[in-house]
Amino acid sequence: MPTSSERRAVVQRGTDGRWFARPYMGTDRVTGRRIRPYRSWDAELTREQAQAECDRWIATYIPSSAQDSSKRLSSMLETYVSDPVNGLADNSVAAYRSVIRTMVEPTIGRIPYDQLQPWDVSAAYRMLLAPRSGKGLSPKTVLVMHALLRGAYRTWGHAIGRDIMLEVPAPRAKPAEPFALSELDADELSRAMVSAMSSRDATGANIARRTEAMAVFLALHTGLRCGEVCGLQRRDWRRSLHDIHVAGQAVEKPSLHRQAYTKGKRARNVSVSPAVEAQLERHLAWQDSWLVRKGPAAPVITFGCAGGLARPSTVTARFKAIARELELPGETVFHTLRHTHATWLLTHGWDMRLVQERLGHANVKTTLEAYGSVMPGRDREAAAAFTDSIYGGDTDE
Question: 0.70 cut: is pTM over it?
Answer without folding.
Answer: no
